[in-house]
Amino acid sequence: MALTKQQIKEAAQRLDAAERARQQTGLISLAYPNMTMDDAYAIQAGWVEHKLGSDRSIVGHKIGLTSKAMQAALNIDIPDSGILFDDMLFNSGSNIPQDRFIQPRVEAEIAFVMKHDLAGDNVTVEQVMAATGYLVPSLEILDTRIHRKCPQTGVARNVFDTIADNAANAGLVLGEQRTDPKKVDMRWIGAIVSANGEVEETGLGAGVLNQPALGIAWLAARLNQYGDSIKAGEIVLSGSFIRPIETQTGTLIEADFGDFGQVSCRF
Predict the structure, then answer these.
(1) Which of 145, 188, 195, 216 would suit a FRET pair with 227, their CA atoms being 20 to 30 Å apart?
(2) Using an 8 Å Cβ cutoff, are 61 and 182 in contact?
(3) 3 state SS of 106
(4) How many domains would you assign to the chain?
């Protein structure tokens, strides 16, 4: 790690202030050009600790940057992850206050709901399946507390900015239909995603590391480095297989996963 504890604390405070004010802050990677990925996760952890001190509780994790296209865009070859909190969770069909966010976007994902703890640095797909209670269709609400591009220099945010910003997570919408992971080929779970009745994106689960369960195994290994694990009862968003869809007030997002179910929300 290249940053001091004070610098990490200050960066976490900047992100928290930006979220509360609904006002984006400058790129952390520009303020600290020597920061590392470990620094980015340390900033995220500092922000998480602050949220837990504000009576919020962890309900799970999100995995991002699982597609080749998104990894190429940020010049990285591994996923990233963030924390899901209780106040981020919405039921399908919910009306979501647009002004709760800064620039909300939506992605379609397969959500894993765990029935057993999952830990270790060599977790297999079979172990992921055994630890999963069920799968549900979901929408992830993305937001960015950091500028996508620096207004002064035009420099784009990088993966360290995204990781520090809780992997750009802001909310999740869960569908109601539950599926046994052992009875479906997740690579072929697809979704047709519409905004106000017009199809915006389509995709297949294979777009997530070729097998969404591999993302869960990757997360278990990453958490294991810090003596942590995926816990029974937690929700894990496995990664998007569509590009993010921009929203504005009045936008109705509907994701039709076919036999896997449906999920929707309105801003």
Answers:
(1) 145
(2) no
(3) strand
(4) 1
Query: Has residue 191 been placed in a domain?
Result: yes
One-character DSSP codes across 144-195: -SB-SB-TTT-PBP-HHHHHHTGGGEEEEEE-S--B-GGGS-GGG-EEEEEE
pLDDT given for residue 77 in this prediction: 81
Range of the domain at 197: 57-266
* Residue 70 located in a structural domain: yes
**How far is residue 5 CA from its own chain's centroid?**
25
Residue 35 lies in a domain: no
209: left (phi over 0), alpha (psi -120 to 50) or beta: left
Nearest to 231 by CA among 136, 164, 133: 133
- Which pLDDT score, from 0 to 100, does residue 73 have? 67
197: number of Cβ within 10 Å: 7
- Classify 63 as helix, strand or coil: strand
* Distance between CA atoms of residues 147 and 112, nearest Å: 30
Residue 3 lies in a domain: no
- Three-state secondary-structure class, residue 267: coil
3-state SS class at 234: coil
CATH of the domain at 190: 3.90.850.10
pLDDT in tens, 200-229: 999 999 999 999 999 999 999 999 998 999
The structure tokens listed for 222 are 């990453």
Token reading at 62? 């999100």
Tallying the residues shown for the chain, one arrives at 267
45 close to 3: Cβ distance less than 8 angstroms: no
Tally of CB atoms within 10 A around 141: 24
CA-CA distance, 244 to 104, in Å (whole number)? 9
pLDDT 10s digits, 38-87: 999 999 999 999 999 998 999 999 999 998 767 776 777 889 999 999 99
